[in-house]
Amino acid sequence: MSEFNWETVCSVTDISKNTGVCALHHGEQVAIFRVGPDEQLFALQNYDPFGQANVLSRGIVGDVDGLLTISSPLYKQHFSLESGKCLEDESVILQTYMVRQQDGLVQLKV
User: What pTM, to 2 d.p., does this model score?
Assistant: First the structure.
């Protein structure tokens, strides 16, 4: 089905709808979100470069002009869930990860 190797990091049921969780992936903290009526998955670095802390998985999922976002719980910067780009400072882009659901499990591309 895919030419990539995938690592299971959690179960889909570990993530409540429209929230995030933190998972460890190759030594890095990754924030994984389950969003919308189709429960689409997104994965970004958990580290907030403005607040200098691993907190983005605890941020608020939202919508800014039709763009799905996560708002940092510290200083409230908005980041695109798809691209990782900060809406307030486009020079700041979070690392994103390829994520999928497979048999009820959340997997990140290795």
Answer: 0.93
Q: Cα separations (Å) of 59 from 4, 35, 89?
A: 29, 13, 18
Summarised one tens digit per residue, pLDDT across range 57-100 is 999 999 999 999 999 999 999 999 999 999 999 999 999 999 99
Q: What is the CATH number of domain 3-109?
A: 2.102.10.10
51 phi, psi to nearest 5 deg: -85, -10
Distance CA(32)–CA(95), nearest Å, equals 12
Please give the distance of CA 2 from its chain centroid, rounded to a whole number: 21
Distance CA 32, CA 24 (A): 10
Q: What is the mean pLDDT of the chain?
A: 95
Cβ(75)–Cβ(59) under 8 Å?
Answer: no
In the chain, domain spans:
3-109
**Are 56 and 96 in contact, with CB atoms under 8 Å apart?**
no
